[in-house]
Structures are given as C-alpha cells and as structure tokens.
C-alpha cells in the first residue's frame, strides 16, 4: 500500500527528481529543437509560459505560429488579451492560422489582467496570449494558478528587463532576433541546462 | 382526475419574513383606514399572545405591549402566490389560484411521469421551502376536497374511504362554506359535513339556495368543477424598497440574489430563458440607475444570472444613495439547453465559451471582443475587417507581418538593412483612397524585422513603418 502511495507522490510534477524529467503534458511547438529540449516535447499545458523580448518584432509571434495554427483547427478559440498591435489576419492566413478562431480582447491595465485570468480559468480557450502591462509577481502567480485550473496554453509577453525578477511561470524564454531562443527557467529541467541557448532556426 | 392543493396558511407572514422581519418576533400585518386599522395576519409569537385575524390594532396592542405592526402588502402577497402557481405549473398545465391562500393543480395526468405522489410531493415541498413558505398539501378527487384535505391531512391522498372520514371529521366552520350558511346550519344543530349531506336535497335547496347545494356537489364530485387555468405572466418584474438608504452596491446583493432566484424559477416554469434583463437602482433623488445585463444566449441559471449582474454592479459608481431595487425582464425567448453529447465535446466547450464572453462583456462592455477577418483588398489597411458577420476574402500577396500598425508611423532607425522588396501596392483610385507604396522587409539595428514603405518610385527618403514580423 505504501509503495503505491509513494508512486503517486513521485508522479506529482512538483517533486523534483534531479535531471530526470517529470511527466508534463505539452503541445508540440512545431520547432524540432525546442520540442527536443522542453519536457513533454512542447509548450506546457496548464502552466504559464513567459516570453521576454527586448522589442516587438523579434519573431516572438512566429515562435507560436505553428502551435496556434494547429489549435485553430479545433473548436476552441485563441484569445489575445490586449495585444500591442492589430493581429493581422492576412499574415495569419499565410501562416495557416484560421483567424475566425482568434478573439482579440481590447482592454487596458488591470482589467486586462482580470480578463486574462478569466480566460485562462474558464477552460473554454485553446490558448490565451496576454501582454500584461506592469504586472507584478502576485499578478503572475494568479495567472499561473488560473492556467493550472483551465488546462490551456498560456503565454505572457513581457519586456526583457523583467528577466532578473522572480517569476512563478513554469517556463521562461527570452527571444532574440533571428528566432534564437534562450530558456531562462523550465520546470522539470535542471538549472544548468536552462541557461543553454537553443537555436530554433527552422523557420 | 386527481387534484392537489397547496395550502399556504401564512403567506402574508412568510412574505414579511422574507422581506426582513424577524420570524421570532411578535408582529402583525395591518390594513384598513387610519382610524380603523385591523390585523390581517399575525406572526406565531403574536398568535401565541391571543392576537388573531380581524382584530382591531388597538385591541391587539392591548394584548401585547411590544407588538410590532407593519403594513399588509397585498401586491407582494399576490406575487408570492403567483410564484407558487409558477412552481405548480412545472407539474401540470391545469393550475388555478381560486382561494387567497391556496393553489390547486391537476396531477392525475402527470403523476406517473413524476414517479408517484410521494416523489412529486417531495420535490414540490423542496421548492416551496426554498421560497421560504409554510405549506400543506392535500390530494383528492375534486379540487374542493383536496383543499379540505390539505388543511386536515397534510400530504395524504384521500381515496373513497378517506373521503367519508374527511366529510365526517371536517367541522362546518372549516369547510369553506358561505359564513351565513354555516351560522344557520350550526343553529340547526348540525356540526359536520356528512350530517349536512345526509339531509334531503330539496329541503336544503329551499332553505339555503342553489349556492350551497352547488358547493356540496362540487365537493363530493357530483358536479363538474373545472379549474380556471392560470397562465404564467409574459414578463417578469420584481423589486423592493429598502428600509434604509444604502451607499454601497454590496448591500443589495442579498435581495438581488433572491429576485434572480425567483426569475430563474419563473423562467423554468415557462420553459423560457432570458437574454437581457434590466436592473434598476432607485435613488431618493434623480433618475434611477439602469443596468442592462445581456447574454450571448438565453440563460436561466440563477447563479449565472447573479454572477453577471454582480459584475455589472461592481462597475457602477453610486452617486446618490440607493433606496430601492427592481429587476425586470421583458424579452423571454425560448430556452434551448446546450446538451452535452457523449461523443461531442464541442457543445460543452461552446457553452463555457459563451459563459466566458458573457462575463467579459458584463464587466468590460459589449464591444470588448473582436475577431479580425481577412478581406479581399490589396491595400493593407483594408485587407481586414472586424465587423460582425464579415465574410472571409483572400488575395494572394507578398509576405505580410503578424502585427499591423493602425496607421503608418516614421521608422526610428538610422540604418535599417533591406531584406527583401520592393513590393508595389497601388490601388484604391475608385474610391478616392489611392495608395501607391513600395513595401520592403527591413531589419533594424535591434534585429527586429519591420514592414515599411516609401512612396512609390522613391529610392531615398524616410521609411514609414506599417507592421512588425513579430
């Protein structure tokens, strides 16, 4: 009986067992190098992924385009909460992303945090992308908890000056120009490998 | 035919308790002109002190010093009665309010469907208790007999044998006969119903007229007694005036929840839903604050209605104190439940998405969501539309950025590198919106990939940024 209980405890993703990866449910990102690195082989489901960028236009959306395109084949919508610019449907069509599944929420400030939390927790969305302005660690923790209950893909885009800040996100990436991706933090991976630079120049 | 009667012995008192009076206190509901106030109903504690219906207020106050008197609200009582009828309407299409304190329904036709009387009674009682109403139930072959049975034999079905016992046991005063006839019959030494029924009919008719005979015949089922069918109202409206002025909307959440529960009960008995309802906050001065709560699809779940109303309320700045509250629903479309299919998960996904959009719209406004759709136009600004119901159009074109700027702005970069281009875009002469531009894909010094243009044909000059290849 105790052996069974121990097995159950060990299956909990919060138990850290050295370099051995815990079972993580993930959606393949569509970038072979990145999938090979990330535990579960892709973007973690039911966890917040934080994407840090120095400026807009470094390829941060192209990074997500393959997975969003695949999700747009399903019934559930992809929600973008307060994006910095207009998500351009012509480019979506070129990336095979069905724009009919995209819902853009035009809100600002704290309302955007609230809306993102609602979308994440509702379990009605396939993916939630948000650009939370000025969010703090507490706010991020709320988003992370909402993502856990909603079991969807969750992405928060932030400026890279927040890289040194502590963050409850399960995965933190920094995107450099030319779609070079640096993994800052990754649940289920050791800290040393998290600093490695993964080049996903497949696109 | 089998009739059930829901007897509501203390309807007015129950209503007063629902509106906030303390149930354990001695209080009376009074009516009548100022000089001749009389007691319409008395609470349990007041009755224990000997106060009863019809007494003058002065006499009642003489019996009990600490007696609290509140005005009798006939309209609120009628509304509660209608609420009970609407509960009954869920079990039968033949429902009637014939007495001021009872609702009668025909249950013979649907008894088997509801799994027999004990089950039906249980579920009726559960709903009545939820409304906070004291009640008694009676079942018999005629409406009148079921009314007498409710008073005397709560919850039991009266069959032929039971009917004889009921007629034997019911005192004349409790038989719902004309008061004058009761006095006369009692003067004749008659005490019980079966004694009256044993008298020769011709003599009874001569002495008491046709009305008494008619009543007795309907009671024992020798004469048809059709129910005047009650129909649910076409719209819902409920509200109250608060005892004190309220400055925060949080204080009205409790009564609001109750009214929305009533609305939900009302909707489920009509088999309808509500797509839009109106919540008015009445102020002592000035116009009432009206909040419109709208939903993506007809809804009748009390909890969800309450959640949406609360989100709306959270956003309201109350300028002057609130003295009252009103809930009103006029449009009641048919309710189509979203059935969760065993093999089809999308129905539930759609359902939860609608619930989510309702919540977002309730708090952030109706215009908060949009879906940009591709349009068949060469000009980048016109190649998309967020209008609802827009059809997808497509034109093959060069690479387009994922982010589009609402309008082009000067690119602030000293030496961008040209990656590809130019792509000449020139159209719009037919609607006076001519655009002639050479678009390039550039790389800025930060490594961003930009979509920028120069006026058509120019080799030098400032770049205008129109999008990011994010």
Task: Outline the fold blueprint.
The complex is a heterodimer of chains A (203) and B (470).
Chain A: H1 2-11, E1 26-27, H2 32-37, E2 43-44, E3 47-53, H3 60-71, E4 78-81, E5 86-87, H4 89-94, E6 102-105, H5 109-122, E7 127-130, H6 137-150, E8 153-159, E9 171-176, E10 180-186, H7 191-194, E11 197-199
Parallel strand pairs in A: 3-8, 3-9, 4-6, 4-7, 7-8
Antiparallel strand pairs in A: 1-2, 9-10, 10-11
Helix pairs in contact in A: 5-6
Chain B: E1 3-7, H1 11-18, E2 27-31, E3 38-42, H2 44-48, H3 57-63, E4 68-71, H4 74-88, E5 95-99, E6 102-106, H5 117-131, E7 136-140, H6 143-152, H7 160-169, H8 179-187, H9 193-198, H10 201-208, H11 210-220, E8 236-246, H12 253-270, E9 274-283, E10 289-299, H13 302-314, E11 322-329, H14 346-364, E12 369-370, E13 373-374, E14 384-385, E15 403-410, E16 417-427, E17 435-443, E18 449-455, E19 464-468
Helix pairs in contact in B: 4-12, 10-11, 12-13, 13-14
Poorly predicted residue ranges of chain A: 191-203
Classification by helices and strands of chain A: alpha/beta
Number of domains of chain B: 3
Average predicted confidence as pLDDT of chain A: 83
Helix and strand content put the structural class of chain B at alpha+beta
Overall description:
Chain A is globular. With 203 residues, chain A is α/β, with parallel strands linked by helices. Chain A has a single domain, classed as P-loop containing nucleotide triphosphate hydrolases (Rossmann fold, 3-Layer(aba) Sandwich). The C terminus of chain A is likely disordered. Chain A starts with a helix and ends with a strand. Chain A is built from seven helices and eleven strands. Chain B has 470 residues and is an alpha+beta fold. Chain B folds into three domains: 231 residues, Alpha-Beta Plaits, CATH 3.30.70; 128 residues, DNA polymerase, Y-family, little finger domain (Dna Ligase, domain 1, 2-Layer Sandwich), CATH 3.30.1490.100; 89 residues, no CATH class. Chain B is 33% helix and 26% strand. In chain B, a hairpin with an 8-residue loop joins strand 18 and strand 19. The longest helix of chain B is centred in the last third of the chain and has 19 residues. Chain B is elongated, with a radius of gyration of 35 Å. Chain B starts with a strand and ends with a strand. The model of chain B has no long low-confidence stretch (mean pLDDT 85). At the A-B interface, helix 3, strand 5, helix 4, strand 6 and helix 5 of A face helix 14, strand 12, strand 13 and strand 15 of B.
């Amino acid at each position: 009986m105790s052996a069974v209980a121990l097995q159950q405890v060990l299956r909990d993703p919060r138990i850290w067992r050295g370099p051995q990866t815990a079972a993580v449910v993930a959606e393949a990102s569509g970038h072979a190098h990145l999938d090979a690195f990330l535990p579960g082989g892709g973007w973690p489901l039911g966890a917040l992924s934080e994407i840090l960028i120095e400026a807009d236009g470094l390829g941060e959306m192209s990074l997500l385009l393959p997975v969003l395109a695949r999700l747009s084949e399903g019934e559930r919508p992809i929600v973008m909460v307060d994006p910095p610019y207009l998500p351009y449907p012509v480019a979506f069509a070129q990336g095979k992303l069905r724009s009919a599944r995209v819902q853009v929420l035009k809100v600002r400030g704290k309302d955007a945090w609230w809306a993102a939390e609602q979308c994440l927790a509702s379990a009605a969305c396939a993916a939630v992308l948000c650009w939370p302005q000025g969010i703090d660690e507490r706010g991020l923790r709320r988003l992370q908890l909402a993502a856990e209950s909603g079991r969807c893909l969750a992405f928060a885009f932030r400026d890279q000056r927040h890289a040194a800040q502590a963050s409850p996100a399960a995965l933190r990436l920094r995107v450099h120009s030319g779609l070079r991706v640096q993994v800052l933090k990754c649940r289920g991976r050791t800290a040393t490998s998290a600093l490695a630079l993964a080049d996903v120049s497949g696109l | 035919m089998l009739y059930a009667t829901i007897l509501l012995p203390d309807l007015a008192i129950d209503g007063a308790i629902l509106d906030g009076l303390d149930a354990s206190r001695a209080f009376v509901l009074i009516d009548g002109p100022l000089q001749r106030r009389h007691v319409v109903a008395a609470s349990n504690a007041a009755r224990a002190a000997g106060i009863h219906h019809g007494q003058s207020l002065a006499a009642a106050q003489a019996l009990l010093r600490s007696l609290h008197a509140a005005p009798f609200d006939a309209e609120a009582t009628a509304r509660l009665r209608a609420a009970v009828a609407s509960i009954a309407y869920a079990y039968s299409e033949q429902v009637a309010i014939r007495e001021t304190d009872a609702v009668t329904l025909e249950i013979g036709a649907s008894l088997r469907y509801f799994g027999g009387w004990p089950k039906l009674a249980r579920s009726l009682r559960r709903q009545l208790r939820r409304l906070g109403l004291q009640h008694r139930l009676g079942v018999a072959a005629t409406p009148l007999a079921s009314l007498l049975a409710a008073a005397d034999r709560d919850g039991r079905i009266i069959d032929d044998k039971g009917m004889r016992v009921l007629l034997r046991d019911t005192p004349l005063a409790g038989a719902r006969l004309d008061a004058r006839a009761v006095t006369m019959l009692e003067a004749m030494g008659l005490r019980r119903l079966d004694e009256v029924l044993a008298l020769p009919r011709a003599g009874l008719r001569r002495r008491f007229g046709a009305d008494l005979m008619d009543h007795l015949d309907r009671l024992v089922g020798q004469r048809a007694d059709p129910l005047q069918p009650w129909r649910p109202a076409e719209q819902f409206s409920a509200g109250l005036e608060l005892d004190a002025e309220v400055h925060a909307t949080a204080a009205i959440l409790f009564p609001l929840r109750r009214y929305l529960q009533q609305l939900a009960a009302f909707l489920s008995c009509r088999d309808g839903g509500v797509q839009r309802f109106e919540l008015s906050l009445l102020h002592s001065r000035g116009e009432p604050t009206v909040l419109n709560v709208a939903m993506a699809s007809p809804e009748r779940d009390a909890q969800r209605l309450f959640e949406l109303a609360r989100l709306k309320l959270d956003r309201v700045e109350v300028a002057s104190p609130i003295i009252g509250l009103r809930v009103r629903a006029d449009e009641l479309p048919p309710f189509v439940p979203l059935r969760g299919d065993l093999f089809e998960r999308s129905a539930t996904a759609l359902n939860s998405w609608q619930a989510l959009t309702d919540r977002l719209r309730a708090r952030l406004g109706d215009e908060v969501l949009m879906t940009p759709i591709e349009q068949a136009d060469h000009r980048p600004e016109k190649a998309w539309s967020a209008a609802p119901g827009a059809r997808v159009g497509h034109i093959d074109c060069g690479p387009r950025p994922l982010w589009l700027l609402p309008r082009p702005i000067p690119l602030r970069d000293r030496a961008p590198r040209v990656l590809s281009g130019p792509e000449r875009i020139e159209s719009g002469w037919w609607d006076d919106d001519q655009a002639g531009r050479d678009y390039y894909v550039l790389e800025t010094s930060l490594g961003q990939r930009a979509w920028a243009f120069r006026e058509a044909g120019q080799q030098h000059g400032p770049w205008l940024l129109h999008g990011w290849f994010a």
